[in-house]
């Protein structure tokens, strides 16, 4: 009974990532056992079916048709994404400015462990590269630290889904190497909260404690918006609501934001409204000579309206 409070029943069901999350968070603050009490029978049935070899590969259907274009993309799970962000915040919580590498490692760990739940496996290298690069341009003062976490998680989740595959025995989801890394992580968490003076001793160096306030340029917001736009347009194409290539659509949208000197976080409806007003203004001009900027702006407005 006591083992169930911290997730030892997940170990018995061969759910290693889920068990690690339980153990490292004290049973998800003792609420995880309440959730599992409603779904434990489902987990046990799934475990028994897997042992008996009765599980077939899950195929994705919509309106009775097999979606073959989703073969390279794992469906986005909002609950998993929220769990990844919350777990990353739990690993990286601090009253001081964190180093970029430590924050990126925490976000990557959170996304990686949560992303490996449910018979899926992901490549941590790509997730680390995306998380580190996006966090590097975002970390500044406390405000930027908070904003860096969800966007770094977006990048890691996106890249992780690109490398995701159904876990098989050949994937070797858990080895002694993984056990060592996880034990070191748990020990680091314990030291982090029990002996903060020792944990942050190396941060006394001016190199680590440098003040980044005011050094975050506007283009960091543009990078974050570009990533979200890319994900949005990919979903539009997959659902057959648009035929424009996601990268092309996102780049043209960034061009229009820069051309109209608009806010990076402008809504799509507002940007379309600006484009419509620009087209009307251009129609009233007496000078009909088309400059490169005018042609490109018109083309960009046409792309985002499709």
TrEMBL record:
<protein>
    <submittedName>
        <fullName>TM2 domain-containing protein</fullName>
    </submittedName>
</protein>
<feature type="transmembrane region" description="Helical">
    <location>
        <begin position="70"/>
        <end position="90"/>
    </location>
</feature>
<feature type="transmembrane region" description="Helical">
    <location>
        <begin position="20"/>
        <end position="41"/>
    </location>
</feature>
<keyword id="KW-0812">Transmembrane</keyword>
<feature type="transmembrane region" description="Helical">
    <location>
        <begin position="96"/>
        <end position="114"/>
    </location>
</feature>
<dbReference type="GO" id="GO:0016020">
    <property type="term" value="C:membrane"/>
</dbReference>
<keyword id="KW-0472">Membrane</keyword>
<keyword id="KW-1133">Transmembrane helix</keyword>
<feature type="transmembrane region" description="Helical">
    <location>
        <begin position="123"/>
        <end position="139"/>
    </location>
</feature>
């Amino acid at each position: 009974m006591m083992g169930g409070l911290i997730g030892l029943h997940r170990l018995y069901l061969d759910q290693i990532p889920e068990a690690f999350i339980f153990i490292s968070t004290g049973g998800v603050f003792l609420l995880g056992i309440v959730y599992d009490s409603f779904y434990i029978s489902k987990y046990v049935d799934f475990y028994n079916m897997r042992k008996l070899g009765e599980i077939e590969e899950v195929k994705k259907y919509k309106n009775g048709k097999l979606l073959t274009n989703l073969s390279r993309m794992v469906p986005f799970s909002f609950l998993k994404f929220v769990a990844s962000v919350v777990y990353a915040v739990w690993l990286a919580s601090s009253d001081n400015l964190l180093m970029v590498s430590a924050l990126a490692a925490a976000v990557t760990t959170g996304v990686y462990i949560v992303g490996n739940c449910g018979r899926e496996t992901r490549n941590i290298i790509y997730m680390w590269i995306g998380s580190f690069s996006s966090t590097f341009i975002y970390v500044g003062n406390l405000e930027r630290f908070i904003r860096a976490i969800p966007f770094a998680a977006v990048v890691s989740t996106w890249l992780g889904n690109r490398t995701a595959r159904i876990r098989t025995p050949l994937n070797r989801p858990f080895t002694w190497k993984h056990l060592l890394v996880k034990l070191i992580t748990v020990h680091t968490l314990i030291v982090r909260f029990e002996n903060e003076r020792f944990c942050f001793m190396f941060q006394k160096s001016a190199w680590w404690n440098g003040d980044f306030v005011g050094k975050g340029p506007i283009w960091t917001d543009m990078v974050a918006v570009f990533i979200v736009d890319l994900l949005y347009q990919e979903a539009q194409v997959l659902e057959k609501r648009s035929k424009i290539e996601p990268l092309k659509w996102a780049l043209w949208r960034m061009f229009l934001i820069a051309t109209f000197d608009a806010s990076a976080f402008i809504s799509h409806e507002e940007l379309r409204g600006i484009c419509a007003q620009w087209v009307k203004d251009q129609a009233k001009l007496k000078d009909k000579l088309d400059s490169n900027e005018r042609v490109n702006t018109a083309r960009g407005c046409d792309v985002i309206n499709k």
